[in-house]
Structures are given as C-alpha cells and as structure tokens.
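Troubleshooting log. The previous run stalled partway through. Resubmitting the same two chains, unchanged.
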Amino acid sequence: MTAIHIADTGLFVAMGHPSKRRYQGVRRFARRNDITFVIPERVYDELTVNISETETPPVDAAIEEQWARIAGQLDYSISLVSRTMDGVQRYIANADNRPADEIERADPALAAVAAQALIEGTADHAYIYTTDRLAGEGAETILQSEGYGDSVTYVNGFRFVEDLLDL
Amino acid sequence: MSSTSNRANGDVIRDFLSVADLLEEPQLAQLYAYLAREGETTVGELMEALDLAQGTAYTYVNQLVDTGVLEATTDGQPRTYTTRDIDLTITTTDSGREYTITAALIDAVGRRTTDEDIDTYINRHGIAGLATALTYAVDRERGDVTHRTMASDLDISPLAAEIILQALRPIVTEYFEIEPSGGSVADIQGVDQDVVSDDT
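Second attempt completed without errors. Output:
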C-alpha cells in the first residue's frame, strides 16, 4: 500500500523550531516510516512568507532533510481534481455562510492534491495533516462523495504532534 | 458589567475600556485569571501561588477591587476575594454567533508575559485585536472557519493567523466546549508507532 501524506501550514507551525522536541518527534516518525510529507504549493508559499517578529516555520529544514517536499502542480484538466477543489471551497464557505469565491484556495488544495494522487494511482490512501478542522472534514466529506471515502483520512495536526511526544 | 459589541466593525471593546485599561497590566490579568479559576482566595494564597511580594499583592488586589472586577467576600481576617463576572459578549454580523469571552480574554492577556506570540499579537493589534482573534480561535476549533478565513477577514497573513490561533488554542480548550476531531498517529495505517529512537 502506498500512501500520500499531505501537510498543511499548521503542522509546521505546531512543530516549532528544529531544536524542539515536537519537530524532532515528527522527523523521527517520518524517517522511521519512510514518509515524505507533501506540501501543496500554496501552503509552501504561505509558510515561507516573511513576517517580521516571527520565526519562519521549519519547512525548508524539513525539505533539506528530505522528509518533506513541495507537491507538483495541480492538474485542473482532471475533472476529479477541479470538482474536489470546487467542492471543498463550497463546503468551507457554507460552514460560515460566505460566498464560495471568498474562500482562499489553499484550503481546497489539500484535498485536490489528494484527489490527483488517488486518480493517477500514485497513492491508494491520502492522509491530510491539518490544524484546520474545517479543511480536514471538508476534504473527507467531498472525497467521500466522489467514492473515495475509505481512502482519505483527516489527521488532526495538534493531536498528531502531541501524541508523538508521548510515545 | 455587560456589553455587546460587534466583531466586524472593530469596536469590539469600546464599551469595555475600563477593563481594557486593566488588561494593559498582564500581572493584574494573571491575578484575575487565577481568582476566576480558583474561587475564593486570600491575599496570602495569591502571594504564594503567583510568587508576589506582600506589598505588590495588596496593591494589585486593591486596584482590582477599585476597578470593580474583584470583591471581598468576608469582613473577617484574613479577607477572601472573589471575581465579579464581567460578560463581554461579541456578536458577529455574518453568522450571528455570540461569544462571552471575558475570562478567556483576561487569561490570554495574562499569558503575554510568558508567550511571545500572544505578546507580539497584542503589540500589533491591541487587546481588542486579541479579543477578535479569540473568537476566531473558538470558531476554528469548532470547525466553522479556517486560519485562512481569519487571515482574509482581518487582512493579515495566513501564517500570522495560524500562529496566534495556535497560541490561543490552550485557552480555547480550557474555557469552551470543543469536540475532538480528526485522527491521530493510531489512525495512520502501516506505520511503526514506536518512534522512540535516537536517530536525530
């Protein structure tokens, strides 16, 4: 079984600096299990924006250490990919009564990266690691409606990082 | 004391200025949050719990009594003090959801002395901004918004939104009912969960 592990911004923020136990716990987990976290392009852009007074999350360190990589471009000509993108966007908009076109496209991109890997057959299961419950549940719901219910798991980024500390 | 104001127009705490002034002093906020959690407390207990000198403890308590957020519950010695409920209610225009955030907000402000992310956010956006962020933190944990929704509403970067939401999360889980969501390590198939090794 091949799985794709897709990581959102919050996972890297929750890990903290490479000197922290949280970061090291996730790295150890990835290495031990030969996992490379896949970061959608929009998420990578978000993580590497330069805001003063704040430490940049350790995404480049994880890429250099080869347990994270940036996802390839999304192929919107695959209809499952574009349907997933639109579906999650609507799901997130509906939760808060907003117009769908106001929803930032990094949220649905997590699910769209999963959809592309599943339909192209590069993975038979997608794990989405996010601290945004709405994005995680939206991805599960929309991909379930596309017949991929058993193939997608939303992993709560906070619980994941905390549980690795306890192991 | 009670007031209602609106998140969207940015005047979250306009009616709340006396308490907002108080919130400028994180030590006072810490003291208030401690009393709110512990109930009736003597000055001696506060000195011990918060590591305060006697003079400082009395100054803080008297200041909070004068502001009206603490009251003495006994006339005998030693006096005990308790918090008066202060309900600041915030209603969003979009969804009509209401939040009573006072105790959580005061606790959050009290943590700025030890939490750099909260301190940075207050320096940039003020206590009123932190109150707004707290409402998004509640909504995020409940699955109504994402950090990106907050970023676009408040015109800040998604990363800045994520950082303050994570800093506020322990407060949200302490003061609000949050259902757990999503899977964790045990739900990831085919992995070795025993990751305790020294390969770093």
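Takeaways: Chain B is about 50% helix and 10% strand. Confidence is low (pLDDT under 50) at residues 1-15, 196-200 of chain B.
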